[in-house]
Amino acid sequence: MRIAELSRRTGVPIPTIKYYMREGLVPPGERTGPNQARYGEEHVRRLRLARALVEVGGLPVASARQALTLIFSSGISEFDVLGKAQYALTPPREHTEDDAWDEAAAQVDDLIARRGWQVKPGNPARRTLADALATLRRLGQDDYLDLLETYAETAESLADTEVRAISRRGDLHAMAEAIVIWTALGDPVLASLRRLAQEARAARVLGGTAEETA
Amino acid sequence: MRIAELSRRTGVPIPTIKYYMREGLVPPGERTGPNQARYGEEHVRRLRLARALVEVGGLPVASARQALTLIFSSGISEFDVLGKAQYALTPPREHTEDDAWDEAAAQVDDLIARRGWQVKPGNPARRTLADALATLRRLGQDDYLDLLETYAETAESLADTEVRAISRRGDLHAMAEAIVIWTALGDPVLASLRRLAQEARAARVLGGTAEETA
DNA sequence: TAATTATGGATAGCGACACTCTCTACTATC
DNA sequence: GATAGTAGAGAGTGTCGCTATCCATAATTA
């Protein structure tokens, strides 16, 4: 298949495909001449995946490349595919380390220990969480921090279901792909569901009706 | 207080404060001369909040403005503050309506009906969710869509806790503020916790150890 | 009081990012 | 043989979130 068909089948414009190839999200095609190359089904899948991570998952192109490289590389072990996926899918943030941040970081460590979670010290989610909790402190929302326990419990049961579902896939490659997809797209899914559930719950508790169109 | 102190107390650089004022995230100070103005505690709070929404919550400046305007406007009723907050906090996305999208939208409607949720037809989370589910379909991950039930259940219990916690705040203004903060910052908190829990669970199920530093 | 520094407001510029356009030397197809 | 498509590379574009500069004026300091 040539680039026009690749574009047609994925819905990605040709210039964008070329850009993604330059950025390494998609490998070059198999060369058949000075200005000719052939693309296969793997290109289609990989391009679709790239698009999903960037558009729906909201990942920076560089992070998407890392994740795609991970999936389509041979020689990964199932023991570190998840960790590596999380590294790739958590774009770096810069933060301010002040008192509130130190307290928040301690709170994160405490939570992880209390739940008996085994988490590598380098997991970037630690830092992201500490950032968010520190911000909540600075905004004077620390009286709500007991909600954190509920959040953690929720996350735990969710992760349990997810990991079990993923580990049922025998093929390591399919597993890696599913991990990346569900880690990246699970966030917006969960966020949307939370908003929908919030509105439904609020309608009940606060007595609002669902008729108003805001 | 003048702008230098405002900057010092919030940690936001003066040029950025000026930019935020231009963009309407923070109102102008009380004028006392041709080139003098006075700022108060509300400016401090509002600026801190703006910073949190943009930096940690990752909101576009325009969305943050909407949310802040909502919080600091008088004359909101508790019946629609949540709806309006959700509108403000869900940045618009463009999407492709194809077969997969139609199916996904139907799936969303079905889920909402099945759960007995009362959700306004215009809630932007409906569309975001349909987008994500359609993408999962296009990626051939629809065999995992039964996970959606778990996600929904999770979201429901979470929303329940959140709405009860928020409604305990008597003051309407404090309620509106808490809703905006927790809607925006809850997403990264939840996402981080999910990643941490995933790693912990994966270590157990897949037998990996937590010693490797990836 | 004179020099320095700060202020509010407006306009312009900057760097990152994700494309998008253009060009060239070819190749395929009608 | 004319037209359209192709790979690859470089430059250009639009948006976003700041950041720098400038000006007239006000406050602070020597």
Automatic annotation (TrEMBL), chains A, B:
Span of domain HTH merR-type = 1-70
Keywords noted in UniProt: DNA-binding
Task: Spell out the PROSITE patterns in the cross-references.
Answer: HTH_MERR_2 (PS50937)
For this UniProt entry, which segments traverse the membrane? none
Q: What SMART domains is this protein classified in? A: HTH_MERR
- Kindly give the Pfam families that the UniProt entry links to this protein: MerR_1
Q: Does the keyword Electron transport apply?
A: no
Which InterPro entries would you find in this protein's record?
Answer: DNA-bd_dom_put_sf, MerR-type_HTH_dom, MerR_fam
Q: What is this protein called?
A: MerR family transcriptional regulator
From which source organism is this entry? Microbispora siamensis
